[in-house]
Amino acid sequence: MVCVKVQPVSEVRDPIPASNSRLKKPQTALITGGLMIAFILVIYLFATQAIVQPILLVLGLLLGYTLFHARFGFTSAFRRFMSVGNGEAIRSHMVMLAVAVTLFAPILAYGYSFFGAEVSGYVSPVGVSLLVGAFIFGIGMQLGGGCASGTLYAVGGGRSVMFVTLVFFIIGSTIGAMHLPFWTDDLPSFGTISLATSTGLGYGGAWLLSIILFGIITWITFIVERKKQPPKMATVPSAKGWKRILRGSWPLFAAAIVLAVLNALTLMTRGTPWGITSGFALWGSKIAQLLGVDVASWGYWQGENAQSLQASIFADSTTVLNFGVLLGAFIASAAGGLFKFTSLNMKNVTASVIGGLLMGYGARLAFGCNIGAYFGGIASFSLHGYIWGILALGGTFIALYLRPLFGLSVPKSKDSFC
């Protein structure tokens, strides 16, 4: 057994670092530019695409704004809990998931939607593909500096190294799409398992079971914290009063509720929950196709996916959401006076390359990332969402020993961790 002796330290919410100084002045020119780009995109989508696309862009803007505004992380939440036992952010996840299942249950049970789309959640198979994909995604997000949503909102905030992560995330997703039939068709799988429809519980029973599970996880985080006495998360500068809505930082629990509501609205708008990484696979595959690769022959692009490969990227709802998240995070960072390109070095670039590839490949194997599989899967009452979270935590633990090799920090406590 290997034990590491560490010293106490606090850690701010990441992937965007915050200083302890006063809130900075808003970058008005950048805010104006971001809003103009968003407005032009909305008009373009209204003119060229179905009505849901401009609405999804607005929802993406709100998602990106919320993620950056609260520094709402999945990567850092897993890392803090696995390294020092700080469960503050994990508890905010449980609030988000509790609100999400409460909203998703009636939507999925009765098929509520705004535009008559058939509604379905993210219920994916449980098999070797999921186990391997979620585990390597957990390692990748700790090396890459952010998960799928974290990568997008960090890029929107100007964190330079995350542009590297995003590029290799796209490459990894494309390779994963090419290899996916091997993982899903040739290796063992138990198929899809829904707590609502596969167990006889129905959506009401599955909702109650989910709330109990979230309560148990929350209770476990308190037990771990009492044992390890971890440092608290550092505060982020914020405006006071009503100005806090637009500038500064939101409490994690407030952001958790907003994200759950926005995910439910996304489900009712396009018929499926919020997702991110299928858009990366599409972008990479289209680029590969331009380079002469016979992408259309891949199993991933057969059947329902074939049309997406031939259509405009603006016809892809996940792509539109991703663009919205990037713009929303950019506007939020400018509103806080925080947009600034950061420096690069060989170690963090190398970590981003490896992390991006692992996340991209892992997301395809695991049928989604921290958003599509973990958030969307659990909200949809899919067993694969819970398994994704457990395996990603395992990957995070391994990554704690890899991060220092690339000059990346690890949260520390006054106790040894093994």
From TrEMBL:
TM stretches of this protein: 29-47, 53-74, 95-115, 127-154, 161-183, 203-224, 245-265, 320-339, 351-375, 381-402
Membrane topology field: Multi-pass membrane protein
Pfam families to which the protein is assigned, alphabetical: Sulf_transp (PF04143)
Keywords: Cell inner membrane, Cell membrane, Membrane, Transmembrane, Transmembrane helix, Transport
One term under GO cellular component: plasma membrane
InterPro entries: Sulf_transp_TsuA/YedE
Domain of life, per lineage: Bacteria
Subcellular location, record wording: Cell inner membrane
Keyword Cell division set for record: no
Record flagged with keyword Membrane: yes
Family membership: Belongs to the TsuA/YedE (TC 9.B.102) family.
Protein name per its UniProtKB record: Membrane protein
Species, as recorded: Virgibacillus pantothenticus
